[in-house]
Design goal:
The protein is mostly helical and about 130 residues long. It has six helices and no strands. The chain has one domain. This is DUF2069 domain-containing protein.
Length: about 130
């Protein structure tokens, strides 16, 4: 049986790879892929690639900051939901993956950080006479 942390890591890995596949499909083969150059479309995938090694290794720090990377794609998904038309199903898939990862990334970072003894340093109390 997987522990909570191991289960969250598996969910994060699968969800992130699925998001990478979905976004890659959208920017390389989607309905608007021919409007921009291949280089411009590939640039959309660069922020998703940056945290990938740390996410696959299970680094809690990477899971914490990768949540901020998801914000860019969350804006894309919400805009797409608003204007999608025939591609609404695709926009909802993207939004669902982002919602899942936006919840599970911080939970994994917190639980795994505690297992490793990581955390914010507490201020030491100042001595009374000084």
């Amino acid at each position: 049986m997987l522990s909570n942390t191991a289960l969250l890591l598996q969910i994060n890995r699968a969800g992130y790879l699925a998001l990478l596949f979905v976004m890659g499909y959208w920017f390389l083969f989607g309905p608007n892929s021919q409007e921009y150059s291949l280089v411009f479309n590939l640039l959309w995938l660069v922020p998703l690639m940056l945290p990938l090694p740390g996410l696959l290794k299970g680094n809690p720090y990477t899971h914490a900051w990768a949540s901020f990377v998801l914000c860019l794609y969350l804006l894309h998904a919400l805009t797409l939901v608003y204007i999608a038309g025939d591609w609404l199903w695709f926009a909802l898939l993207e939004l669902g993956l982002l919602a899942l990862l936006s919840v599970t990334f911080p939970f994994y970072a917190r639980h795994r950080g505690r297992e490793l003894g990581l955390g914010l340093k507490k201020k030491s109390k100042e001595k009374d006479g000084e």
